[in-house]
Amino acid sequence: MIKLDIDFVRNQFPAFKEPSLAGFAHFENAGGSYACAQMIDALHHYYTATKVQPYYCFEPSIGAGQEMTRARERMGSWLNVSANEVHFSASTSQNSYVVAQALRDYLSPGDEIIVTNQDHEANIGVWRRLEAQGVVIREWQVNPQTAELEDAGLDTLLNEKTRVVAFTHCSNIVGSINPVRQWADKIHAVGALAFVDGVSYAGHGLPDIESLGADIYFFSLYKVYGPHLGVMVMRDALNKALPSQGHFFNVGSATSRFTPAGPDHAQIASVNGVIDYFEAIDSHHFSAADKSPKAQRVGALLHSAEIENLKPLLDFLKQRAGIRLIGKLATDNRAPTVSFTVDGVDPAVIAEKLAEQHIGIANGNCYAYRLMEALDISPEQGVVRLSFVHYTSAQEVNRLIEALEGLI
Questions:
Q1: pTM more than 0.85
Q2: What distances in angstroms separate CA 213 from CA 66, 84, 148, one per listed residue?
Q3: Tens digit of pLDDT for each residue in 373-390?
Q4: Where do runs of H (alpha helix) occur along 80-172?
Q5: Residue 225 CB: number of other CB atoms within 10 A?
Q6: Coil, strand, or helix at residue 361?
């Protein structure tokens, strides 16, 4: 198997050459990744050369619009959907909020939405608010011993009144990669829609939306080496069925129907830089003769590198007394997002002690408030969360383990 060239990868990120970050180890990537140089360059170019209203008949407006259109087309290609199914906005929370407003007029009293208690609140709260319109909310609960969502829980809730099931591709606390296609098939079998939160998955490799079967798929580009944008893939059939949330005169424009606020033009154009980065990874590691889908082979390459670093961290945590490790103890179907509690120790203390050693991690509920309650963990204290991606080096992981050994 081809091995990720970690030196090549890290050379694509200015953060690793930034003097103020020298000696800092970033283990809070689930909250936001470093930006690749290609994206930074694209953003700089837009602001310096094309910072005008796009899509008019003069230069530099023509160039601005071309870069925005190109970004949408290229992102669609990597996600295996059409460009018109890709929507950009300020955040995933905003995208889900807009869809919830559309559902107010689309659903009827008595219709049911299933939400989980494993998700980030962005894929729970907006749907729950529809109870005010008479929509019935059902909760698909995790197994409190394993923190996992199980098939039986979904099977029990699905019925002829189910209209939407909202669930996560990968929990930002548990780290498990859920079987999206398997669950989407069950959901579609009763005539319902599958809304999938991929925020904690996409940074580990862009998904093939067509193969997943999701009707809506959300993720955030600031966790995928890019700008602070939310990406929403909405399949064409659903786009046409839901009431438009944009200006009345844009009702015929697929990409304007669910973007009521003006998108950040420069950031959309800079998405080209994110795709340039993935293209660079692909061309550096794979032959042009390889005809497998780029997103698939690049994703497998990134995942392999992450798993190699994840195993020693999990092995270390499993053997420590007083540690409650959330989620799978092995690397199978797991992202490198590792959460745990330590008996008698506030997670904030561990985060502060690691910060003193220039290691950045997360602590708290990380917007998975309901999951904390389900696992009988104080949402106010939450967990210790360690998260990394493919650009994290083995040396950084070893340094983290050594620091944790001195603390716990």
A1: yes
A2: 30, 17, 21
A3: 999 999 999 999 999 999
A4: 92-106, 125-128, 151-157
A5: 24
A6: coil
Please report the pLDDT score of residue 261 as a whole number.
81
b/e string for 181-205 if b means 16 or more Cβ within 10 A?
Answer: eebbebbeeeebbbbbbbbbbbbbb
Count CB-CB contacts under 10 A for residue 256: 17
- Bridge pairing between strands 323-326 and 337-342: antiparallel
Residue with tokens 């985060």: 351
Quick one: DSSP state of residue 58?
Answer: S
* Contact present, 383 and 363 (Cβ < 8 Å): yes
10 Å CB burial of residue 166 (0-12, 13-18, 19+) is buried
Q: What are the pLDDT digits (tens) for 212-255?
A: 999 999 999 999 999 999 999 999 999 999 999 999 999 999 99
In words, the CATH class of domain 42-274 is alpha beta
For the chain, domain boundaries: 6-35+293-407, 42-274
Dihedral sign from CA coordinates of 70, 72, 73, 78: positive
* Bridge partners of residue 170, in order along the sequence: 177
- Give the Cβ contact number of residue 48 at 10 Å: 8
DSSP type of residue 329 = S
Q: Which CATH class is domain 6-35+293-407?
A: alpha beta
For the stretch 254-313, pLDDT in tens is 999 999 987 899 999 999 999 999 999 999 999 988 989 999 999 999 999 999 999 999
Query: Distance of CA 113 to CAs 128, 131, 164, Å?
Result: 8, 9, 5
Element (H, E) at 238: helix 236-241
Identify the burial level of 139 via C-beta atoms within 10 angstroms of its C-beta, where 0-12 means exposed, 13-18 middle and 19 or more buried: middle
Instruction: Find where tokens 């050693």 sit.
Output: 357
